[in-house]
Amino acid sequence: MRLTDDERRMRDGEQGEAVAAAMDLLIRYGEVLGAERLVDTDNVCGANIFGPRQMQLCGHAGPDAVFSEFSLDSPEPVEIPPMRAQSYQLIGPMDTQHWQVQGLSQEAHDAIEESESYSARHGIHLMNTCTPYQVGNVPVKGEHCAWMESSAVVYVNSVLGARTNVEGRESAAAAMLTGKIPYWGYHLAENRFGSHLVEVAEPVRDSLDWGLLGYYVGEQVQEGVPVLDGIAEVPNLVKLKHFGAAAASSGGVEMYHIPGTTVEARSVEEAFGPRRPLQTLRYGERERRLTYEQLNSTAQDTDVDLVMIGCPHATLSQIRDVCRLVEGRKVHPDSALWVFTPRAIRQVAEQNGYARILRDAGALLMSDTCPAIGQFLPKGTRVIATDSAKQVHYLPAIMKVQGWFGSTEECVQSALTGRWQGELR
Ligand code: F3S
């Protein structure tokens, strides 16, 4: 790999052991990928909040040792300096308000809190969400980023035209310390053209429809770059958030084009550039129904223990929509309604009275984490319902529960009645 003088000096330890370890990691990683060089980045989203398990595995040797081991792949503890690049914490393990509801011990709470303040002292912005793009980190077209979190990567690549691959914890941490990332994959213009044409012959209206379409497309194209033709209405952030998260769950989609909507494709021709489609797929009534059945294949029991809204983390508009459905009503005593959102949006939801409406209905507005990442559910939960194709893809597998997938309205109704009555309309 070709290195600049600055990169060579970092590798050789001029800026300390941690930066040298980070540079060494990036060089090894880049060489495996066939990257010829590194590229500068000043926008890194990673995950460096640790709990008691990691502390224990490092023999309680302190947060520098934990960061070295788990974020830098360096078994020898090194002193971690402030981050060089603008750095952001993605989702974490704990809601600082509702950690007891999550079932966390005081010890776990204290360890995570300590890890958060360590991150903050090192210049990592505590956004604590899988949707940094809705709370202030909005990269621009062409900006080289280094982000973890597949649902966020597919959003910023496709909708905003920023450039990132799906990074891992270690490569993102190394990018935070050096401001560099291997120049390969979606950093290169030639890899961003479409690979598959998807003719959408079914109306795609609400976020349920966008989740179904995303799940279908991801499964079909896997790591390809789908181009959607036939979308009649301009989708908003919520719909694109659901689409991308679903496509990145059933497959490994990191980039897509919707001609006329996403920034790198004014037309189908521009989306494909010099490439020809490898395959043309048709999404019609049959594909929609089969995808719906697949997403609901783990559920049989209609008594719903938990309804989860906010995967990826809910926007303020989604919170308002839930409020309109629950205002003046109560969540069924045998069920629970949890809505997940970034910490910053929960603050606004408090100011707007939405958080109070949810509390009065017996629902919880949670932040910073989610059941799939934090691995927590109300005690005894057997059946969940969610409006997220991503969450219903992962949660039944991770937590051994049944999962219903439906519209936001159907999910909220099931929390109010305790029973699932969703169907494909
Ligand atoms: Fe976010 Fe958790 Fe879903 S990280 S995208 S809410 S699985």
Question: How would you characterize the overall build of this protein?
Answer:
With 425 residues, the chain is α/β, with parallel strands linked by helices. The chain folds into three domains: 5-189, Aconitase, domain 3 (2-Layer Sandwich); 193-294, no CATH class; 296-417, Aconitase, domain 3. The chain has helices at 5-11, 17-33, 52-57, 63-72, 106-121, 150-160, 169-178, 207-221, 237-250, 268-272, 285-295, 316-326, 343-351, 354-361, 371-374, 389-399, 408-417, and strands at 38-40, 44-46, 87-89, 124-125, 146-147, 180-182, 196-200, 226-229, 279-283, 306-309, 336-341, 364-367, 383-386, 402-405. It has a five-stranded parallel sheet with strand order 12-11-10-13-14, with helices on both faces. It has a four-stranded parallel sheet with strand order 4-3-2-5. Strands 8-7-9 form a three-stranded parallel sheet. Strand 3 (87-89), helix 5 (106-121) and strand 4 (124-125) form a beta-alpha-beta unit. The longest helix has 17 residues, at 17-33. The radius of gyration is 22 Å and the shape is globular. The model has no long low-confidence stretch (mean pLDDT 97).
